[in-house]
């Protein structure tokens, strides 16, 4: 049963045009996301609740439970009517978006609440994986990627991914770990 559910989740992700790496799995553990999922529908994708102000994000649901969340590609927004990611040239926030200018507070050290991954000191090429019990591991980002604190993950610094990195964070990382883009082009 589990493998059947997993294969259907992967099929939904592939149909929506997603990379499986973009998916965060919840398997029904997030009550707010569960509330957005219609009961009695085997597989459906729905947009995030409006107050989260995320028109690219969507929730993959099964039988009233949020099994995973993901986001549309660059230049796309999630269409609640079709259940697909659509290209958009007219970006607008969802109705009910309460605070579009809110800035997420991200953890800066492992002792901060909710910290899982934090930036390493004096470099963007590494990050710290924070585990319970005070055990922390310094990890390397893959080649051609930098740890971006706002996303709490390593992100590739080549097109088309570069557009998603906040300009200020990219400038900070370039100051710490300059990348010669002439060497990255083939």
From TrEMBL:
GO molecular function, one term: chitin binding
Database matches in Gene3D superfamilies: Chitin binding domain
Chitin-binding type-2 domain segment(s): 34-99, 107-175
Record's GO cellular component terms: extracellular region
Pfam families with a match to the protein in the record: CBM_14 (PF01607)
Keywords carried by this UniProt record: Signal
Keyword Signal belongs to the record: yes
Signal peptide: 1-21
UniProt keyword annotation of tRNA-binding present: no
Protein name (database record): Uncharacterized protein LOC106065349
